[in-house]
Amino acid sequence: MNRRRALALGGSVAGSLIAGTGRASAQSAAKQRLLLNGVTIVDTHDGTLSPNMAILIDGGKIVKIAPAQSIAAGNARTVNARGKFVVPGFNDYHAHPLSSSDPEGSLTLMLANGVTGFREMASQPETLVARANDTLMPWTDVPELLEIASTTLAGSNARTPEIAVAEVQKQKALGADFIKVIDTRPEVFFAALAESTRLKLRFMGHLSPSVNVRDAATAGMRSIEHMGPRDSILLGCSTDEAALRAIMAQAAPKPPPAGPPTLADIKRGLANPVVGTDPSDFVRFQRVIDTFSAARRDDLAAHFVAAGTWQVPTLIRVRTMEIGEDPIYRNDPNLRYVPQATVAMWEDVSKQFAASIPVSSRATLKNLYALQTTLVKPFHDAGVQMMAGSDLGGGFVVAGFGLHHEFDLLAQAGLSPLAVLQMTTLNGAKFLGREATMGSVAEGKNADLVLLDANPIASVANLHRISAVVRAGAYYSGDVLAAMKEQTATRVAAGLASAPNALPLCACCLA
């Protein structure tokens, strides 16, 4: 069978290029045994290293860990892992691969970049039905879907507290794992949050600037995404917060949308929702920047710790939104993995950003982004729990590669390599209540692993040096991972990837 025909037929994403390499698919891994010999195990709790160890994997689980050469291989496939460092598989805790422009390619690229699990941050009711029927992800070589939300609560489906409460109840009945919220009025926000709490559904997402961040944390908002976004967290760090909130309260309320967002709205929102920002908002952004208080920041951090409110910074997404015209995005070589129609749309929105937002306002946005990044280390040092996410699905965020860019940005924000590693492994296990099965390399845990060529505790850059990936016990060598990436690029170049108009679109980023 020629390559193009194999690609067109679908099936295993990597299968047509790497059949015969000895790689076991995740579906068949439960029937196979794998022995990693001579590897250095990285403890995600404290960064300690255990060199020259052996890890026996069977049925997709780690069944034994002992000194190298001390475990009889038997019928297990043995991999010489001497000189390699093993960590749990990376997890992207804020992603939209299932509603991206190429779900199959997105999931393939995630796994090829060491991402073995993800949270789908928004979907449609049909998506939850497909998950219940085990038909949601028909591909073989993909990460695990850790959690999924249904339709995002926004102005279109949560116009009043009563409608929002009914929507939360509907999503609970559909099997949503949590409730995602974006731009809602305070009375709607808190009604939905209260109902979610009553139904034991975690409530997370975006804060509208009109929602007081301390009140949201006290009421039980479980996780705030995108450092707000914009100024919704920074307002809580301003010495002028009360005055700014009084101004916002006196402003004429914007009428809620008459109906669901149009396709054009969705495309723009997914690419960059900052385009179309009201000019008055930039005035507020600048005042928030000018009145920033480190003491107020530290007080807010303590409030988050006391309330148990987590953060998923997605600095890469915040940057692509607030510095939306940066040519570095358009020149990213990884765009070859993204369907051409999607890249063209991203570039068009980038041009709109530059054309529609005055230079002075763009300068304010750059300062806003810089200030948001300065929150990360003080929050971490104060004990605010955080997870790593890329917001895959947003403009210029490429599947898999985006999470690695996030690692670099978190390091630039001042976090240690261990802290960054924890944000993509251990912390999420704690958040999900799954420390028994994920988050560290230990007996009894899922065999979702990344083998690295260098010590990730020494440098965040070493998280990029992937030698191999183990997903549910299936071993993917470096050559296989490279082939998976190349096949995705081939699909894109051949026009076989999905078109944006065919997506199960959601209004998840229209805030």
| Distance between the ends | 46 Å
Domain count, please report it.
2
Structural class: alpha/beta
Q: What is the correct CATH architecture of the largest domain?
A: Alpha-Beta Barrel
What value does the average pLDDT take? 90
Proportion of strand residues: 15-25%
CATH evolutionary superfamily of the largest domain: Metal-dependent hydrolases
**Helix share bin:** 25-40%
Give the number of DSSP strands: 15
CATH topology tier name of the largest domain: TIM Barrel
Shape: globular
Structural commentary:
There is one protein chain. This protein is of the alpha/beta class. It folds into two domains: about 5-90 and about 440-490, Urease, subunit C, domain 1, CATH 2.30.40.10; about 90-435, TIM Barrel (Alpha-Beta Barrel). About 40% of the residues lie in helices and about 15% in strands. It is built from 20 helices and 15 strands. The strands form three sheets. Strands 1, 2, 3, 4, 5, 13, 14 and 15 form an eight-stranded mixed beta sheet that branches. β14 and β15 (about 475) form a beta hairpin. The longest helix has 17 residues, at about 340-355. The radius of gyration is 23 Å and the shape is globular.
